[in-house]
Amino acid sequence: MTTFLALFTCASMSQSFYTGPIIDMHLHAYTDSNPMFGMTHPPTLRGETFNGVASPAEQRERTLSKLSEHNIVKAVVTNGELWKDNDSEAILIGKSSGTIEMLRRLHQEGNLQLISEMTPFYDGVLADDPSQLPYFELAQELDIPVGIHIFPGGPNYGFHIMPEMLGGMRTYNANPLQLEDVLVKFPSLRLYIMHGGWPYVDDVKALMYAHPNVYVGIGALWVLPQEEFNEYIKALSNAGFGNRIMFGTDQMVWPQTIDAAINMVNSAEFLSLEQKEDIFFDNAAEFLRLSEEETQLHKGL
Ligand SMILES: [Zn+2]
């Protein structure tokens, strides 16, 4: 009986374990100057720690190997031009700094597919600040997606761990409603909130209700306890927004977080296999406007 039950449990779990192609909407490529190299991620709110890679070369090599290990067929990489030579098909380049002219030129040359990750938050600047509007305006004009960082991001307690890099972050600047005037000003934006907007679940629901062009990514939500992640995603799904939640890792210098992010979604037992497929692939494929042909190719259809 015990054996039968164990087999049954095992079978039902594997039925809801997604193994198809994945789109990662949130990765980073760094140069030598990034101070996070070699850093151990402090215990997350679920108690995990991750050892940091030592160099840009190791970051690239180990991240790309995780992409192939997990069948991640498309990845939005901020500063992805650093890795483009390695896997030009899979990598979509995001950039959010530099002049508007430079971004426009990069796009023309085929070296910019998204404006992301926008991080005015770390400088204490809100999304609707006049200094940020040209980036949204450009994204709308070029009809390319834009991704923006608000809470939570990682690591947890970042202000205290990396004050020189993250010292400008303030909780009072983290509310997703700062995007509303941007969405009103640029109603055709294809915008995603890169960390889901946790913990402002009601405000995210309100924003998604008012604006059908707002999607959320789940990058770095592996900092949260599993139950908290479940509750957050369940709340958005129950509200009818399950088709606008996109998988993302926010792998920085910790390649193991790619495993953690995938396990987090697969461990959310309330999600059906179909809902997991939406999060892992279908929602992002729609958001990025992948062709039917490419989608079928990735799915082996
Ligand atoms: Zn971020």
Number of helices: 12
For the biggest β-sheet, the strand order reads: 1-2-3-4-5-6-7-8
Structural class: alpha/beta
- Say which molecules are bound, naming each kind only once: zinc ion
Percent helix, as a range, is 25-40%
At CATH level 3, the topology is TIM Barrel
CATH class: Alpha Beta
The CATH architecture would be Alpha-Beta Barrel
The CATH fourth-level homologous superfamily: Metal-dependent hydrolases
Give the radius of gyration: 19 Å
Strand residue percentage: 5-15%
* String of helices and strands: HEHEEHEHEHHHEHEHEHHH
Largest sheet: 8 strands, parallel
Oligomer: single chain
Number of strands: 8
For the record, the count of structural domains works out to 1
Uncertain segments of ≥5 residues (pLDDT<50)? 1-11
Structure overview:
The structure is a single chain. The protein is 40% helix and 12% strand. The chain has 301 residues and is of the alpha/beta class. It has a single domain (19-298), classed as Metal-dependent hydrolases (TIM Barrel, Alpha-Beta Barrel). It has an eight-stranded parallel β-sheet. Strand 4 (114-118), helix 4 (133-142) and strand 5 form a beta-alpha-beta unit. The model is unreliable at 1-11 (pLDDT under 50). The structure holds zinc ion (ZN). Zinc ion is lined by residues 117, 149, 153, 194-195, 250.
Brief overview:
With 301 residues, the chain is of the alpha/beta class.
Q: In terms of topology, how is this protein built?
A:
Elements (H helix, E strand, L loop, with lengths): L1 H14 L6 E7 L27 H14 L2 E7 L12 E5 L4 H9 L5 E5 L14 H10 L3 E3 L9 H4 L1 H4 L13 H6 L5 E3 L7 H10 L3 E4 L8 H16 L3 E2 L9 H11 L6 H15 L4 H7 L3
Parallel strand pairs: 1-2, 2-3, 3-4, 4-5, 5-6, 6-7, 7-8
Helix pairs in contact: 8-9
This protein binds zinc ion.
Zinc ion (ZN) binds next to loops.
